[in-house]
Amino acid sequence: MDRLSALPKPILHAILARLPDKDAAKTIALSKTWRDTWFSFPNLSVCIHPLRKDNRFRKMDILIDYRLCECLTTILIGGWIQMASESGIEVLELHLPACGAEILTSLHYNLPFCVTEAKSLTKLVLGLGIRVDQEFLSHSMKFSSLKRLSLCYVRLAHEGILQNLISHCPLIEYLLVKNCYVPNDLSTEDPLVIRIDMVKSLFLNGLQKLKEVHVQGIQEVHIDSPNLENLSYCPMGVDAPFKLNFDSCTKLRCCA
Which InterPro entries match (predicted)? Predict the structure, then answer.
């Protein structure tokens, strides 16, 4: 055991990555070295169901996939994200499992502002059940290393949050925005019915590194990105009027 404990930390992390989650967690009882190795382990999974072997993480240095349930508190999850942000996280994926009507009525988790403090973050994926609050509109922030951003069915406290979030990603190369929405203040007789307004417009300006954009569910899109090469666009409805402006994208090679 002493020889194993003397191995470099990346090798110890590689050993943990090949163990079942429960067995990997038990290594903290072996020695102080293994306890420190576990607390600095970059692959963190919090799931309702255990991960199968064929679903283990590959090629991504750090992946946090939170499938939340009510027994996991917001404070606990926020602490995990804070720890990851301070430990050189590169890839962060957050979403809640939901389908059909559950997309709008299921539990939502507020994205903590500490995500913006992750200086090494290169890929951010936000999906079902993630809510971005007013804090991301009223505070200054900068995703200084983010290159890939995906937002699918994200609940926004204000439509301007989406614009503000993207504009603070100066190195972004890939962007996906799909059916993001804002809750409507109009009340309904049924408490389970939530009125929503889809994000109506998106302006992509000053993103010099942007090469690939996928947009769905937004009726007005303006893109001023000289290095854009690939664009995929789908409005909310086939018969609904839409406006798409990408005249300044001189390097565009593929548009679907």
Answer: F-box-like_dom_sf, F-box_dom, LRR_dom_sf, LRR_FXL15/At3g58940/PEG3-like
In this predicted model, what pLDDT tens digit does every residue of 197-213 receive, in sequence order?
Answer: 889 999 998 899 999 99
pLDDT (tens digit per residue) in 87-129: 778 888 887 765 444 445 456 778 888 888 788 889 999 988 8
Residue where one domain finishes, among candidates 25, 41, 57: 41
Residue 239 CB neighbours (<10 A): 6
Residues 95 and 194 in one domain: yes
Specify the pTM: 0.71
Sheet holding 196-198: strands in order across?
109-110, 130-132, 155-156, 181-183, 196-198
Helix, strand, coil percent content, the chain, rounded in steps of 5: 25, 25, 50
Same domain, 9 and 97: no
Residues 60 and 101 in one domain: yes
Asked whether residue 209 falls in the same domain as residue 184, the answer is no
Domain count, the chain: 3
- What's the mean pLDDT in 165-174? 92
* Amino acid identity, position 82: Q
Distance between CA atoms of 71 and 201, rounded to whole angstroms?
37
- Longest Cα–Cα distance in the chain: 69
pLDDT of residue 35: 79
Residue 59 has pLDDT above 70, yes or no: no
Claim to verify: residue 104 and residue 187 sit in the same structural domain:
yes
